[in-house]
Design brief:
Elements lengths: L1 E6 L2 H8 L4 E4 L3 H13 L3 E7 H6 L1 H10 L4 E5 L8 H13 L4
Parallel strand pairs: 1-2, 1-3, 3-4
């Protein structure tokens, strides 16, 4: 199983590359969609790491993929400009998936 990084900056991508994770740097919503479709079509990719900024560019697509696809797992990672707490994101995801506020 491989990791795939979809980042909005080269620093994050280069840091993840040091761990062996390949990926792309994108800035527009259509580029995010293309990168996600690329990741979801590769059977070797098990986890997609995405920066918060990119998830906010196309949240409907990301949450649809999280809820309706078993593989790969999409994990939101904070970028260097972290604007929200990851725990808030996880809580929102659970609330949307299960319908329970925690």
């Amino acid at each position: 199983m491989k990791f795939f990084v979809i980042s909005d900056n080269k620093d994050t991508q280069n840091g993840m590359r040091l761990t062996g994770a390949e990926g792309v740097v994108v800035h527009e919503a259509h580029e995010v969609e293309e990168a996600l479709h690329r990741a979801f079509s590769d059977p070797e990719i098990g986890i997609v790491l995405m920066t918060q900024k990119l998830i906010h560019l196309c949240p409907e697509l990301v949450f649809d993929l999280k809820l309706n696809r078993k593989r790969p797992l999409i994990v939101e990672i904070p970028d260097r400009h972290a604007t929200s707490k990851i725990s808030d994101t996880i809580s929102r995801y659970i609330q949307e998936a299960v319908g329970i506020k925690i």
